[in-house]
Amino acid sequence: MKSISEISYAAARGIVEANIKHLTRVETIDIDECPGRVLAETIVARLSVPSFDRSAMDGYAVIAADTNDASRDNPKILNILGELHAGDTTTETVRRGECIKVATGAMIPYGADAVVMIENAERNGTSCKIFQPFTAATNISQAGEDIKEGETLLNQGVVLDAGKIGVLATQGLTRASVFVKPVVAIISSGEEISEPGKELKPGTIYDVNSHTIASVVQENGGVPLILGIVRDNLEQIKAKIIEGLNSDIVVISGGSSVGERDMLVNALEGWGEVFFHGVQVKPGKPTLFALVQGKPFFGMPGPPTSCLIHSLLFLGPAIRKMGGLRPKPLRTVTAKLERRVSGMEGRRQFLPVLVKGNEAVPVFKKSGTITSVAWTDGYIEIPEDSASLDKGTKVIVTLF
Amino acid sequence: MKSISEISYAAARGIVEANIKHLTRVETIDIDECPGRVLAETIVARLSVPSFDRSAMDGYAVIAADTNDASRDNPKILNILGELHAGDTTTETVRRGECIKVATGAMIPYGADAVVMIENAERNGTSCKIFQPFTAATNISQAGEDIKEGETLLNQGVVLDAGKIGVLATQGLTRASVFVKPVVAIISSGEEISEPGKELKPGTIYDVNSHTIASVVQENGGVPLILGIVRDNLEQIKAKIIEGLNSDIVVISGGSSVGERDMLVNALEGWGEVFFHGVQVKPGKPTLFALVQGKPFFGMPGPPTSCLIHSLLFLGPAIRKMGGLRPKPLRTVTAKLERRVSGMEGRRQFLPVLVKGNEAVPVFKKSGTITSVAWTDGYIEIPEDSASLDKGTKVIVTLF
After folding, report:
1. A9 CA: distance to closest CA in chain B (Å)
2. Quick check: B216 and B315 in contact, CB under 8 A?
3. Which chain B residues are within 8 Å of A165, Cβ to Cβ?
4. DSSP string, A279-297
5. Distance in Å, alpha carbon of A19 to nearest chain B alpha carbon
6. Which long-range contacts does B359-362 make (Cβ < 8 Å, 24+ apart)?
7. Strands B378-382 and B43-44
8. Is B211 within 8 Å of A51 when comparing Cβ atoms?
9. A56 touches chain B (CB under 8 A)
């Protein structure tokens, strides 16, 4: 087992990125469950859309040549053979001197090559008068105008949204093949962690990390699988990790003391490759990334703010890549620092801030405090080489 | 029934906005199902977090006063009473001259008021030496440092994300009360519309609008309920609308011909108030908005591009308001028009474009073509008073 200790933020991101593979498992689901899913097949049109020439207007389907000499003074009189509504099928043919009344969307009858809007004709019983010439194709939506049979409609890998799902629907498809959502096994470790829903024992705190991680997983297109809490016991931890390896990614949080952190590394001994154990980031530092039996494995810091921020920074992008989603578009605002903040030589800081008007107000209690994140709007990044940022410095706030 | 015919885009948006009420129905769900949901209760802390003073480091819990005179030359020797791990409960008390070894996260034993990091002490069997003074509170996370019992943690109406779900978890909550997602009944009308999954009859097209609307509904936090296709028959339309009124919003698309559009207005006669029927927007125009038995009712244009764009413009924001979500943050890019486009006096145009490099390439086939949306990146808005926009004009593209 190769073990690299502390590395920079950029290097850690790069290593995670390089070791995550797009899952190739697919599932077939109803097209109405497809928003946000990633198409696993390439869709080629098996039907032209529309599959027939149709009228774009309520009017009369005519032979354009019949109207060549029509004028206000010398209207062309056409015999109305009948009427076609949208959805009707017809075997009738329009011949010279004839027309068929058609509704918007109705199939153009054989023989006709133009539609004269109802407003441009004057009906008189079973005939109508046309007062001007019309060229062929007037007011006709041609077969294949939207989609031509045989053309590629959607490529494998596109993210399905309303428009693309509409394209699937044009082909009469009710189901589509999409890539599965990555399943992320979530474990919390520590003797001091209690399960929610039960009375809190003295000296313990409720498990926060399982639930913040589960939320990050869902926000990035994954499916969380909370496996519960393990105690600081090598065999228990190993057994839970083995259970987790049925999923696509394993995340374990906690191990706040030095002994506990060592235990995790011991648990992984001989199973896989630890790429880093410690990232130069504040808050949080002891984040571990490994491949265990080929599966990405994250060891997240125990303190809730650190765990959540590292999950956003490392886990979220990994899930997206695995699921075939593009990186999340970051929403940012610019603001001025409300007060001076200290940098930290050699560590990149992600400092939670409130945005008040055009000011970014740093709010960070301790890495163990979930309210540092829950009650703020986003974070600012303070680079590794900044001694400090002065009050009034223009900063970019990445919104949560 | 009051019937207003064609109105401006801005007026139509305003009328919809003014007539949509935030739903007050709530449901109680697992906190891990809460990402993106709107909290329906105000959460007040029933527990301080942590609920006890705890050690922030691996070290020795001491009485700070004992270390007052400690120095390298004259270290203070303390008797080690025992050891506390995270999660342990203790009844032991530290007295002058004593200490207890504590792990990170462990409860501070009674009597002690500071923790000396393990690196700053030298253990020798059952005692340890301290070489410098420490002030009270050193390396102690105070009870209530994150959350104080009785304080308001989350207000009703906040959208739950990872941080806020973490706050729920600190309190040991497994479930939370959230506002229900608006249920949107979706109806397609028209004789020419066929259901997907069945063979296409000549002269018909598959139903696209039900599925694009269902996608818009989900993208805006609603639940779609597809009620299927109705034919151009007043009684059938009425019956389907009655079925739809069990939901929170009813949307019917189609009615492309003049006669069909009139039928919808007739169907609503005496049931409610039609606020507008026709919006000065291109593509699409005949959009109808009404309150029917108090429920918002949308009549969307039949052509797929018009229907989808109007659903994005009018239905999406309505669902968000009803569900208590803020307006969707629009993602935009600026680009230069690749070619001149014509304005349309008195109608606001939403013109689908591809973004290629820094150019916005107008791509619009016809309002009936779903590929106008599916194969583009977003749209540009051309105001009602623009005669045209020249090639090279800087435009803002709102991404789909």
Report:
1. 22
2. yes
3. 211-212, 214-215
4. BSEES----EEEEETTEEE
5. 25
6. B359/B335, B360/B335, B360/B336, B360/B395, B360/B397, B362/B337, B362/B338
7. unpaired
8. no
9. yes
User: Are residues B107 and A202, on separate chains, in Cβ contact within 8 Å?
Assistant: yes
Write the ipTM: 0.92
Candidates A169, A211, A370; nearest CB to B206? A169
Quick one: tokens of A263? 């235990």
- Count other C-beta atoms under 10 Å from residue A113's C-beta: 19
- CA gap B148, B48 in Å, rounded: 4
Of A32, A56, A370, the CB nearest to B166: A370
CB atoms within 10 A of CB B41: 14
Find the angle CA(A325)-CA(B355)-CA(A164) to the nearest 5 degrees: 50
Cα–Cα distance between B306 and B16 in angstroms, integer?
18
Structure tokens, B248 = 């929170």
Over residues A2-26, the pLDDT tens digits come to: 445 689 999 999 999 999 999 999 9
CB A167 within 8 A of CB A154: yes
At residue A144, the 3 state secondary structure works out as: coil
A366 shares contact with chain B (CB less than 8 Å): yes
Which of A141-145, A322-326, A364-368, B90-94 is the most confident on average?
A322-326
Residues B370/B212, Cβ–Cβ less than 8 Å: yes
Per-residue pLDDT at A219: 97
Residue B2 has pLDDT above 50, yes or no: no
Contact residues, chain A, for B355 at CB < 8 Å: none
How far, rounded to the nearest angstrom, does the alpha carbon of residue A105 sit from its chain's CA centroid? 35
For an interface test with B, give the residue of A192, A220, A309, A350 to mutate (most B CBs within 10 A). Answer: A192
Convert B156-206 into a string of H (helix), E (strand) and C (coil).
Answer: CCCECCHHHHHHHHHCCCCEEEEECCCEEEEEEECCCEECCCCCCCCCCEE
- Do the bridges between strand A332-337 and strand A288-292 make them parallel or antiparallel, or are there none, so unpaired? unpaired
Residues B101 and B114: their CA atoms lie apart, in Å, by 12
Give CA angle at B364 (B361, B370), nearest 5°.
Answer: 125
Number of other CB atoms surrounding residue B239 within 10 Å: 13
Specify whether the CB–CB gap between B182 and B323 falls below 8 A.
Answer: yes
| Nearest-by-Cβ selection for B107 from A104, A165, A203 | A203
Q: What is the DSSP string of B263-306?
A: HHHHHHTTTEEEEEE-BSEES----EEEEETTEEEEEE-SSHHH
Where do the domains of chain B lie, and which CATH numbers do they carry? Answer: 9-24+181-323 (3.40.980.10), 26-46+153-179 (3.90.105.10), 54-141 (2.170.190.11), 332-399 (2.40.340.10)
How, if at all, do strands B193-194 and B140-141 pair? unpaired
DSSP letter, residue A159? B
> Average pLDDT over chain A, rounded to whole?
93
What distance in Å separates the CA atoms of residue A190 and residue A210, rounded to the nearest whole number? 12
Residue A191's pLDDT is what? 87
